[in-house]
């Protein structure tokens, strides 16, 4: 438990430190992706240490499918009810051809990113097999790099440009984030029951909200490569599904589109949301994505700290 509190510390410190120089922000943004890539590579080393890896891959895929399906059903059901309550209908401000091109471009970009990240995990696994002497040191290295990533994420969130007052006053964005968080936790409980996992582990796995580059790494560090792989595939699948359905529903169900994008609505999926649902989606996406990104790491740590 003390180790989990130590992981929360860099996130808190990063969030509490505003930039004094604008030149620091591009540097922080530039360091995030290489840090994620390095962590995914080290995550692959953890897979290399698994016995019966071929058998475990099928278990990873099954676990991710159960979690993904339960999360999608519960998230979308709640978000549709929220949209209906608001009776919100947003007219699209771009032509259909532009929307389709934007969706295809973003989907292709996401597929490339996802392929790259899975490839880095595979490369790490291969290197773990080829250089087993390094395996005992990979866990410590991954934990150190994880501290760095959490500090960088805290800095990004603190300096995202969204005033705290705007977050607190945007009631609809807050309700979207709350709906996603609560129904995701319910999906975690359902998945834990189906998969035969402790409830705290199911809740932790469901707390990534689409942030696969962090959830997979954190789960691997605390629960091992098997459940780390489940978290990675679940949140990666969420992002890909979001990119497929956003152009279909954003114009008439903006809350559902924004909510299902989860934590990625403030970055990766934001261009598709703005083009498919109009600029009215942007404040909702920024607020909901920010709150879910801020909530995800401490929520995962909370459930993990409560033990198995």
Structural class: mainly alpha
What do the pLDDT scores average to?
78
The 3D shape can be described as globular
Q: Which series of helices and strands comes N to C?
A: HHHHHHHHHHHHH
% residues in beta strands: under 5%
Helix count, per DSSP?
13
Radius of gyration: 19 Å
The separation of the N and C termini measures 12 Å
**Which regions are unreliable across 5 or more consecutive residues at pLDDT < 50?**
88-105
Tell me about the biggest sheet? none
The helical percent reads over 70%
Number of strands: 0
Textual characterization of the structure:
This protein is 81% helix and 0% strand. It starts with a helix and ends with a helix. The protein is mostly helical. The protein has 13 helices and no strands. The chain is globular. The protein has helices at 2-15, 24-48, 53-86, 96-130, 135-158, 164-169, 171-195, 199-205, 212-223, 225-249, 254-261, 270-277, 281-305. The longest helix is centred in the middle third of the chain and has 35 residues, at 96-130.
List keywords for this structure.
single chain, 308 residues, mainly alpha, 81% helix, 0% strand
Provide the fold topology:
Elements: H1 2-15, H2 24-48, H3 53-86, H4 96-130, H5 135-158, H6 164-169, H7 171-195, H8 199-205, H9 212-223, H10 225-249, H11 254-261, H12 270-277, H13 281-305
Give a nutshell description of this structure:
It contains 13 helices and no strands. It has helices at 2-15, 24-48, 53-86, 96-130, 135-158, 164-169, 171-195, 199-205, 212-223, 225-249, 254-261, 270-277, 281-305.
């Amino acid at each position: 438990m003390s180790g989990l509190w130590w992981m929360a510390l860099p996130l808190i410190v990063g969030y509490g430190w505003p930039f004094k120089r604008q030149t620091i922000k591009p540097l922080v943004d530039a360091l995030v992706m290489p840090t994620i890539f390095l962590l995914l590579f080290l995550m692959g080393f953890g897979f290399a240490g698994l016995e019966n890896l071929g058998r475990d891959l099928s278990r990873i895929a099954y676990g991710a499918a159960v979690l993904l399906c339960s999360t999608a059903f519960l998230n979308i059901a709640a978000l549709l009810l929220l949209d209906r309550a608001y009776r919100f209908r947003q007219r699209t401000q771009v032509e259909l051809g532009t929307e389709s091109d934007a969706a295809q471009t973003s989907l292709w970009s996401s597929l490339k990113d996802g392929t790259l990240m899975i490839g880095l995990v595979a490369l790490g696994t291969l290197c773990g097999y080829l250089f087993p002497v390094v395996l005992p040191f990979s866990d410590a290295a991954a934990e150190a790099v994880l501290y760095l990533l959490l500090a960088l994420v805290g800095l990004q969130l603190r300096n995202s440009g969204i005033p705290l007052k705007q977050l607190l006053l945007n009631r609809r964005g807050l309700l979207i984030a709350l709906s996603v968080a609560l129904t995701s936790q319910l999906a975690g409980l359902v998945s834990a029951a189906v998969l035969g996992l402790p409830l705290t582990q199911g809740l932790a796995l469901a707390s990534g909200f689409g942030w696969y580059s962090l959830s997979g790494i954190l789960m691997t560090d605390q629960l091992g490569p098997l459940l780390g792989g489940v978290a990675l595939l679940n949140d990666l699948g969420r992002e890909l599904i979001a990119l497929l359905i956003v152009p279909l529903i954003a114009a008439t169900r903006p809350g559902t589109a924004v909510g299902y994008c989860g934590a990625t609505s403030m970055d990766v999926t934001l261009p598709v949301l703005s083009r498919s649902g109009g600029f009215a989606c942007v404040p909702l996406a920024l607020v909901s994505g920010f709150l879910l990104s801020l909530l995800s790491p401490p929520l995962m740590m909370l459930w993990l700290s409560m033990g198995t």
